[in-house]
Amino acid sequence: MTHPKIGFIGLGNMGAPMAANLAKAGMTVTGFDPAGTTAKGVAAANSGPEAVHDADVVLTMLPDGEILRAVAQELLPQMKPGALFLDCSTVDVQSTRDVARQAASHGLNFVDAPVSGGVGGAAAGTLTFMAGGSEAAFAAAQPLFDIMGQKAVHCGAAGAGQAAKICNNMILGATMIATCEAFALADKLGLDRQKMFDVVSTSSGYSWSMNAYCPAPGVGPQSPADNGYKPGFAAELMLKDLRLSQQAAEAVNADTPMGARALELYRQFVEDEGGRGQDFSAMLPRFADRDRR
Ligand code: NAD
Q: Candidates 8, 14, 47, 241: which one to mutate for ligand 1, based on the most atoms within 8 Å of Cβ?
């Protein structure tokens, strides 16, 4: 498959630039989105079936598992036998596994490959893919990963990509909160934020949240904190991923109390405290402006 035909379903904030990058690399891409969105270099189809019927790879970039299930139910029967269904959305593990089974029953290959890197990474073609599926299916997806991203990790069978993504983001949510509350405590103790960064970023409290994405404005590398907390990675997207991680934890009876607390704090922040539309690191002003109740 040197020049696979791509059917691209879901041309939103992430999907449109990903599809445009595939087209720019010389692939024949036909796209569909019910919202009527389009992408540069991508032929617009009038329906999902029209976009996928002769595609070698159908790539989906959708909001959630329920929509993925509906799209799969409609499109899997329309696909060419032996084609690859490549879902790059972030969805619950169970929906992924169910869709993978349905794909197999239609004689299709399946890979789940949620991404990290955000809209900037999608536009620049520097996403990281966390993939689940058979060796053969992963190998078929690799040329697309090479165009849209800088790294793809084959994590295991179908669903393993989603599992890796929600575990990573559960750590990220909890460490961002820990970093922000520590800055707020440091403020109250009269410790300068720059000094706090200098110590922690080179001590055992370091993390990606502190070192690469410091939530304190004017401290550490450039981050959304230096841009009025404009996302970046929006708080409501972190909330979505924490919900998925807790849903998964409940399903397999895993004890994840920090993940549960992070979920509750981001839920409060997004739904009750005006955090929607702000970067997820805006937890720092949220903590800094509060006293213990
Ligand atoms: P988005 O809402 O901008 O795009 C989703 C698109 O899916 C929309 O254009 C919508 O019209 C389309 N859609 C809805 N129902 C559909 C259907 N039945 N058939 C076809 N298309 C349909 O969302 P996004 O930011 O592009 O995110 C897409 C996925 O990527 C999500 O699962 C998200 O969690 C994940 N993700 C997003 C980011 C980010 O920074 N935005 C980062 C990593 C992962």
A: 14
Q: Give the DSSP letter of residue 224.
A: G
Residue with CA closest to ligand 1 atom 9? 12
Atom of ligand 1 nearest to the CA of 16: 26
Q: Whole-angstrom Cα distance, residue 202 to residue 276? A: 32
The confidence score (pLDDT) of residue 293 equals: 66
User: How does pLDDT run across 218-228, given as a tens digit for each residue?
Assistant: 999 999 999 99
What whole-number distance in Å separates Cα of residue 229 and Cα of residue 83?
42
Q: What pLDDT was estimated at residue 3?
A: 76
**How far apart (Å, rounded) are the C-alpha atoms in residues 91 and 110?**
15
What spacing in Å lies between the alpha carbon of 129 and ligand 1's midpoint?
A: 16
Q: How far is CA 18 from each of CA 8, 155, 164, rounded to the nearest angstrom?
A: 9, 22, 21
Chain centre distance of CA 161:
11
Relative to the CA of 116, which ligand 1 atom is closest? 43
Instruction: Confirm whether 165 is a catalytic residue.
Output: yes
pTM to 2 decimals? 0.94
Q: Helix/strand/coil (H, E, C) string of 1-65?
A: CCCCEEEEECCCCCHHHHHHHHHHCCCEEEEECCCCCCCCCCEECCCHHHHHCCCCEEEECCCCH
Q: Is the CB of 115 under 6 A from ligand 1?
A: yes
The DSSP call for residue 279 is: B
